[in-house]
Amino acid sequence: MKKTIALLTGGTTGEWVVSVKSAATIAQNIDPNLYDVYKIMLNEKGWFYEPADSVKIEVDKNDFSLTLEGRKIKFDGVFIAIHGSPGEDGKLQGYFDMLGIPYTTCDALTSSITMNKGYTKAIVADIDHLYTAKSVQIFKGGNYNLNQIKQDLRLPYFVKPNSGGSSIGMTKVKHADDLEEAIEKAFKEDTQILIEEFVSGREFSIGIFGSDGQIIVLPATEVIPQNEFFDFEAKYTPGATEEITPGRMNAEELSRVQQLVKEVYQKLNCRGVVRIDYFLEEGTDKFYFIEINTIPGQTATSFIPQQVAAMGITLKEFYTRLMKETLG
Known about the structure:
By secondary structure, this protein is an alpha+beta fold. The chain has helices spanning 16-29, 91-99, 108-114, 117-124, 146-152, 179-187, 232-236, 251-267, 303-311, 315-327, and strands at residues 3-10, 35-43, 46-49, 57-58, 65-68, 71-74, 77-80, 130-132, 135-139, 157-161, 171-173, 192-197, 201-211, 214-217, 221-225, 241-244, 273-281, 287-293.
C-alpha cells in the first residue's frame, strides 16, 4: 500500500531559495508507485499545500493534516527539505516528535546541536585522528577582546555565523585590520560567531546515510573554488567551482576518511542523509573537520545528487532507501 508523504519546503531564512530547488529535485525522483507526495510550503505567511490549480490550502497545525474537497489527509511521514530554520535546527523535528509523525532527518537534539558549528566541534573533538581548526566563539553583546583574538589565532581567519548556512555572512580575513568589519557582517546573520584559523589543504564534501541498519558513505566531492573560498556565489553559480566526484584521494586517505565520517555520524547520533565538509591538510594529510549539514542540498548542482550518481544508483533508488530507513 502506498504511503502518503508530505514534502516540506521553504523556510524562514535566506536559504529558502535553495530549499525550493532541493524539493523540486526530490519531488521528481520519489517513486510514485510507493509514495503519494504532497509538497507543502512553509514560510512567514503560514504552511500551505498548493495543488495544480494553485488555490492555497492551509495545513492544520494541530495534527499536521490537510482537508481536500471535504476529505482529511493525514501523513505517514514527512520528507523535510528545509535548509536553515525551522527545518534544520530541530524545531520541526520536535513538533513532529510530539505528533508521532516520522521524518527523514536527524532528531531534534542532533539537528539543534549541529546547527551550532562551535558546539558540534566540541562534541567531535575527541575522535582519534580527527582535527579541528583552532577557533574562538564570540557572542553578540558579549565581552570579547579583538586584540586577544588576534594574538590567539594566526592569519588568515575565517569569520562565520555559528548557525548559518550556504556560506552567507562569511568572510576570509587576510589582514588583522579587517577583522572588525568581518565580525559586523557575520553578526547581521547570527548572534554567535566562530572565528577560525585557516587550514591550507584540499577541500572535500562527503555524504553519509543510513540504510538497512548500515552506515553508507557516498563518494566524496573535491571542491576547487575559483573564488577565494567556497562562498555562496561559488556554491550556486554553475562553473564558479570545479567539483570532482569522486574526489582525488589515495586508498589510505579514502579508507581513513570513510572511517572518520562514520564515527562522526555515530557520535552525533545522525540519521537520514548528512554531509560532512573537511580539509586534508597540505603537507600532513590530516583530516580537518569543517562542519556537518544535516539537511544537505538536493538541487541539480548539489553534491549529494552528484555523489549518488557516482555511486552508481539512481536518485529514485536513493530516496526510496532513505525513506524506508527513516519513515519505516
